[in-house]
Design goal:
Length: 336
Amino acid sequence: MASAEQLKALLRSHMDGDDSQFYSVAMQLAAHEAKLGHGKLADELRELIDKAKSSRSPLNVRSISATSIAQPKGELSSLLTASFPRYLLSDLILTKELKAQLEKTIREQRQFAKIREHGLGPRRKLLLVGPPGTGKTMTAAVLAGELGLPLFNVRLDALMSKYLGESATKLRLIFDAVSNHRGVYLFDEFDAVGSQRGLGNDVGEIRRVLNSFLQLMEHDQSNSVIVAATNHPELLDRAVFRRFDDVLEYESPDDDQVRTVLIARLGSFAPKKMDWALLSHSAQGMSYADLVRAAEGAIKDAIISDKQRVNADALLQSISEQRSRALRGNVRSDRT
């Protein structure tokens, strides 16, 4: 059942004519019902919200562009890409500690108005660190899905410019959007922005971007969620860590998580008999993304061969091949 605060927030946004906030709270209600196991009601609420959004705009809600953030010159269309994920926390396989951290963030965000009434702020600036393929990027999508907010991916390739001061100007434009339009803003591969000042490959423009980011983060008092993700936390400037409310550390899956990921992805294609100890040993060092690709490869082979289930040996072979590809990719990455 909706909380009193959510109902009040829904009515306030309606009276203020704030469609964005109204839809955000409504999606929170749908996510809450889904979490309680009321799947049919949650789906009906989401369908109604989607229809309402579609009737207000000729654009489909899932393809809406970043230029919808009331920027008359449209600069943001090259700096942000927008989506409306429907992932939930249950879609992520995490350690108990990491899941607890995310649950706390989601809980505080859902009650942000109540927290703000007491002069406090909810957790909303998160730094995600860990190896590739461990769920960092998907975490941002899950936060957006759970909170009923749009997900904005910051395009770092468009942000970084060779012209003096232009990158910092673009960064300020992004933070204007953060203040004016509530959402989840993802800075992926964040080490491109937050690298230590004074590194050998440091250049003046990168230093200016980092200094601007630190200042903008320090003064940001918006209602948006800012997520930065990096595979290389050792490259980040020390001052960066102080600007975030929480640092979430991601790791490669352990044996139990390997089994959970594969069973979930294989579904009805899972082999009847499987030596999971052998499989876990074969999958050591693989990421969640690698495991999913291996499972999907085995499923495709089964489909082509007109088989209803994946053969255990074929699954092991697929895992071995994907692990080799991942290792070669890591070697090439280290050399560049």
